[in-house]
Specification:
- The structure holds three protein chains of three kinds.
- Chain A is α/β, with parallel strands linked by helices.
- In chain A, strand 1 (26-31), helix 2 (37-45) and strand 2 form a beta-alpha-beta unit.
- Chain A folds into two domains: 2-151 and 341-359, Rossmann fold; 155-333 and 369-384, Dihydrodipicolinate Reductase, domain 2, CATH 3.30.360.
- Helices cover 33% and strands 21% of the residues of chain A.
- The longest helix of chain A is centred in the last third of the chain and has 20 residues, at 361-380.
- The chains are: A alpha/beta, B alpha+beta, C alpha/beta.
- Chains A and C meet through strand 6, strand 7, strand 8 and strand 9 of A and strand 6, strand 7, strand 8 and strand 9 of C.
- Strand 1 of chain B pairs antiparallel with strand 6 of chain C, so a sheet runs across the interface.
């Protein structure tokens, strides 16, 4: 009898959230129509149950040009900012993709959630941990879906890393080393400085590519809470007017106000040490592969020339078999799935089925806490304790 | 550990980076030719630093010899304690920090 | 033409030769006649200006057997401790090599320095920083030579690392990553002195970690370390089935040090040192 009652309760929760969508398309809006928005819209255009109805950008005319580029007509984009767009009830939006520069992630996400919209927010989550907490509060109050854009979550090889760790194949994991980055890869040119200025970006390499490495290992470990961070950041390359990729535009060095290199040493719950460094620029090809050391096995994940959004080659498990030290190769899985399609689809499905967020803020908050912690620790030159308040 | 090596030694600088191949054991020697990663006329390139074989006496012989010479000639110790105290401070700091689970400030006692 | 060629050959072959005055012999003693002492005595035997006059070990008879094995005669070894040996004025010792286990580095070094004897001390320096400071005080008071056994300093390749950094070729150094270690390399060649807390005090850190640290710290001019966040573990050492123990499963109970350590160190001059050793 007890069992029946709980089943009933489960069913009723399902009925509450489930809103049949078979008969109509989801109405999508864009906040920010710059670089990464292109990847979003391509994926949306692959979906049969989506209608792109509106978009806005703080650069006048950019949204209009963006939708024209993709041959879309009748998309409402005569808004000067997201506030105006969200205030237009005629749009009847279901969800937005937020593709703005970092410092606008939190304000736009909060506004959209308060307007009762589901949100697909690009990475990094926010600039500071405090902002992330505010977004999560808005999310909780709204009851809407907030998913954060880590498309490598849908990569079969990345999933395999988590499977291997969670399977116990490595035993108890105690030490993880990850990161990497680019040799000369500061994303800036005279026409585009939103990634390197403090007032738009807030964080540099840490937020642009560092978060991917962190997500790779944190998610594999089961999203443990970070406890302490000792961190370092520097900007020698970004502040160098002679930086080769500035191509003579020394003024970019003056505008550079974030990190081009960050490093951190993090204690994770469960007695795991995480050693991390990421660079937009460095005098090295790679600081090394990602390695996950456990009591029964070690996993080597070949570094990629850039951002650990994919696995750089076949992985290896180093372990002992019958007293012999040996390695087991984990071959690359060739997958037909387009990561962006999967990311967008998972978000849409979560809205339709009333499921949970595919990449939930409850996990990504730890990623953000580490980035935030590295910056704060670097500022004072000491380790800091990570504090995540109740949401 | 369950890995072959956690990686080469790398020294990152503003003008160049040095990669020192890891050795299977204890970094008492260089594991292979080193590489300097740097920018030459706008190109990212690497300069190989070949292994030096000077066919001299063994390292231990040189160590003992340098010690004896310092004793006889009144010259400073070849590997002075004023340097190694910092090495020791790090080892000691690691042990202390690991015990309390927090970062420790390194305090070198007055000599 | 022929003259010029010869001159070139001469130039290539000319080496700086250190002239060793074999008439001035140094009287050497060895404290601790275990594993690494073999390397010390090997080298001493090749020096023309050395007379090995004494040796001692905590294990009775070990010193005598050691010198016999190494074919060195006329060495006084009937001492119960290093104190007895250093107290023996008749030896007229100039210097000692200290090759004991880690926890016996500091005390004999201090005693020898206080007796006015030069000291060649094996690595690691000591177990704790407090011990190291005490040794340095004795060194300062004695005015004698204290050298610590990092033979890689004499390796031309290791010296090249320092030359490259000193030359400015790398610009300003801001981040260093070093360490490494062994996959299955817990050292139990002759019992447990490397793995027990009461003899070793530190494990991988002191046995091999100090080498990696010395390599990079020496290269950058040994800046002062300011803060450390550290981690240690002993999962392998405490495993009775650790493959390297063979039949000695009891070693796991005796294992009392680190078999893995990692750290994030802030060095003076805005440099981060990232380190792990196994």
């Amino acid at each position: 009898m007890k069992q029946d009652r709980s089943l009933d309760a489960y069913k009723s929760i399902q009925e509450e959230k489930k809103t049949p969508r078979a008969d109509r398309k989801l109405r999508i809006g864009f906040i920010g129509t710059g670089g990464i928005a292109h990847a979003h819209i391509r994926a949306y255009l692959h979906m049969p149950d989506v209608e792109i109805v509106a978009g806005c950008d703080i650069v006048p005319g950019r949204a209009a040009a963006f939708f024209k580029e993709f041959g879309l007509e009748g998309v409402r984009c005569d808004y000067k900012d997201h506030t105006e767009m969200l205030a237009d009830p005629s749009l009847a939006l279901d969800a937005v993709s937020i593709c703005t520069y970092n410092r606008q992630h939190a304000p736009c996400a909060i506004a959209a959630l308060k307007a009762g919209l589901h949100v697909l927010l690009e990475k990094p989550f926010t600039v500071t941990l405090d902002e992330a907490i505010e977004v999560m509060r808005a999310e909780k109050e709204s009851g809407k879906i907030l998913s954060i854009g880590f498309q490598p979550r849908f990569d079969e090889n990345m999933k395999m890393i988590r499977k291997i760790v969670q399977s116990g194949e490595l035993g108890k994991v105690y030490y993880v080393q990850t990161g990497g980055g680019r040799r000369r890869g500061i994303p800036a040119n005279p026409a585009k400085t939103s990634f390197i200025e403090d007032e738009t970006a807030g964080v540099g390499a840490l937020g642009d590519i560092g978060c991917y490495s962190l997500d790779l290992v944190l998610h594999a470990l089961g999203d443990p809470k970070p406890l302490t961070v000792s961190g370092y950041v520097s900007n020698y390359f970004g502040k160098d007017p002679g930086y080769v990729a500035y191509r003579g535009h020394g003024e970019l060095a003056d505008k550079f106000g974030v990190d081009d290199f960050g490093a951190g040493f993090i204690r994770l719950e469960g007695d795991v040490m995480l050693d991390f460094r990421i660079s937009w620029a460095m005098n090295m090809d790679t600081p090394g592969d990602t390695i996950i050391l456990g009591t029964k096995g070690g996993l080597r994940i070949p570094s990629t020339d850039c951002w650990n959004g994919t696995v750089g080659g076949p992985m290896k498990i180093y372990h002992e078999v019958d007293g012999q030290q040996t390695e087991t190769v984990v071959p690359i899985i060739n997958q037909p799935v387009n990561l962006w399609d999967a990311k967008i689809r998972s978000f849409l499905d979560a809205i339709i089925e009333g499921g949970s967020s595919p990449v939930p803020s409850t996990q990504i908050i730890y990623n953000q806490a580490i980035i935030d912690g590295i910056v704060r620790s670097a500022t004072i030159g000491k380790e800091i304790e990570i504090e995540i308040p109740e949401i | 550990m369950n890995i072959d090596t956690p990686g080469d030694t790398i020294i990152l600088g503003t003008k160049g980076g040095l990669r020192i191949p890891s050795t299977d054991c204890w970094n008492g020697s260089v594991g292979g030719p080193m590489k300097i990663y740097h920018e030459v006329c706008g190109l990212q390139t690497e300069t190989v630093v070949p292994i030096i074989n000077d066919h001299g006496p063994s390292l231990f012989d040189r160590k003992i010899r340098s010690f004896l010479d310092a004793c006889k000639n009144g010259t400073p110790a070849p590997v002075p304690s004023s340097q190694i105290i910092y090495n020791q401070a790090i080892l000691d700091g690691i042990a202390k920090s690991a015990k309390v689970g927090r970062e420790v400030e390194i305090v070198i006692p007055e000599i | 033409m022929a003259e010029k060629m010869d001159a070139k050959l001469d130039y290539n072959q000319k080496k700086e030769e250190v002239v060793v005055d074999a008439n001035r012999k140094l009287r050497i003693g060895i404290i601790g006649c275990g594993w690494i002492a073999d390397s010390h005595i090997d080298s001493y035997k090749r020096m023309p200006d050395v007379e090995i006059v004494a040796g001692c070990d905590l294990i009775p008879g070990k010193a005598a057997a050691f010198f016999k094995k190494n074919g060195v005669e006329g060495v006084k070894t009937d001492y119960a401790s290093h104190k007895e040996m250093l107290d023996d004025e008749s030896l007229q010792l100039d210097a000692v090599s200290i090759c004991t286990y880690n926890r016996q580095h500091a005390e004999p070094a201090i005693y020898a320095l206080n007796k006015g004897v030069h000291v060649m001390l094996e690595k690691p320096f000591t177990v704790t920083i407090e011990e190291a400071a005490e040794v340095m005080k004795a060194e300062k008071a004695s005015g004698k030579v204290l050298s610590i056994g990092f033979q890689p300093r004499l390796d031309p390749n290791m010296q090249m690392i320092k030359k490259i950094v000193d030359s400015g070729e790398l610009g300003q150094i801001y981040y260093i990553q070093t360490g490494g270690g062994r996959r299955r390399g817990i050292p139990t060649p002759f019992g447990t002195s490397f793995i027990e807390d009461k003899t070793a005090g530190l494990g991988a850190l002191a046995d091999i970690g100090c080498y990696s640290l010395d390599m990079v710290l020496n290269a950058i001019g040994y800046p002062k370390p300011l803060t450390v966040t550290g981690y240690k573990s002993d999962f392998f050492g405490k495993d009775p089935n650790y493959v390297g123990y063979g039949a000695h499963h009891e070693y796991a109970d005796l294992f009392g040090v680190d078999d893995f350590a990692a750290a994030f160190v802030r060095l003076e001059g805005g440099i981060i040192l990232d380190f792990r050793i196994a």
